[in-house]
Amino acid sequence: MTRSLATQRRGGLLGAAMAELAGPWPPPVGAYAEERELFRLLQNMLEELIIHQPDDPIQFMINHLKQNNDDAPRICVLGPPASGKTTVALWLCKRLHAIRISQETLLFKEALALTEEAKAYKERKEKIPNALWANLIQERLSNVDCIKQGWILEGFPENQEQAWILQSSGIIPRHVVVLYAPDTVLIERNSGKRIDPITEEVYHTTFDWPRDLLIQERLVKPEDLSEQEISKKLLEYHRNFPGIFQIYQKILKSINADQPSMDVLSQVLTYVQTRHRSAAPFTPRIVFCGPPGSGKSLQAALLAQKYGVVNICCGQLLKEIVAGKTKLGELVKTYIESGYPVPDKLVMKILTERLNALDCMTNGWVLYGFPRDVEQGEQLQESHFVPNRVFFFNLPYESIVERLSQRRIDPVTGERYHTTFRPAPTPEIQARLRQNPRDKEENIEMCVESYYRNVKELEDFYEDAFYVNADQDPFAVFEFIESCIIKPLPCKKFKSS
Q1: Beta-bridge mates of residue 175
Q2: Which of 101, 125, 198, 470 could bridge across to 395 with cysteines, CB 3.0–4.6 Å?
Q3: Averaged over 252-270, what is the pLDDT?
């Protein structure tokens, strides 16, 4: 309980410290910090400081920066006996160039200060204490190769106490993979398990027998493989696992080991290459691009409702400026009434004022209706309003026409209806509905052509954009957009000047 409270207290301190950095930041500063992941870097350093509590925190942070290992893998591979932990760990080490740590490597391949003490327990057939295992692991992970390349911890921790000791020592994995399979399958696998003493690769007499005759000849049968012994180990694993799950549940993924090995390895690799959502400050700056009728306004409204971001429709913003009857509004009005597009410089002036407002800087924003082409995208960028999520909505032309040509507006209430998807509730309302001239098919075709004339260059400009299938249920679309917003983007590498 004490450790649990201490862990929560560390988390609370870290959360409070990061909250102080949450802003509002001026657009250039916030964009620079997020692009180069300065908030995440600071979060990592704060975590290390709170865990290790060094006497000289400044020098500790300098050393942390010199290590440049915040993206090095820190992975635990767990699972019952014969679930394939060794196979997965070896394969991950090859793919990620990380260092594998297991009971065998700690006892028989390392010359650590505590190795002989641990071996003595083994020789006396006594259980090695949890604290001794944790100290062995800590000593090994403090070596330069593990610090720089990262590590794969195979079969550790075995129980909750080991997990607590590792955490209190600052050994906190980023990903925990748990392999599982029915006990009957594991017992059957175990009986045919063979190990190559040179490479430590695991084979099976039925499922995975090597073709190379030299490898076949040198394979050895592991010790303690009786059915009684494996059943005892399985019982112990099942008894200890809930405690481990409780500690690592937020970073843990269970993977079914009772399937082809390449499927297992593929799922493991996909998971360990994901980055968990960071607690570092993040101000959403979202741009929606898409043809008319693709649902941008609805999705923006849903985002604003759920996350409190400011919903900005460029067209609506211009109408509000006109309604304000200012000098700027009068100028915009002359363009709108004459049927000419409002010049980009004038639009940017209005957008800059809105995006610089305190609510946008504090809560973030979702913008649609601008940019419509790459020149407008460049102007947005030059004004330091750099979106950190861009979405392109894709919708077939037939669906666009179906959505827009059947839209109707109630001139009394301003409510929108659709003759197929959302018909008017009463004959009285039905009788007074009107169609906006823009929703006639000939006007829709012109707008769609204009969009697709410019969208290719805009897609190239926003190379990290997400693409949305807008031809589905709106709430399915929203779930996809939401998942893309809350997950971190791939880390960019910047050249030092």
Answers
A1: 75
A2: 470
A3: 91
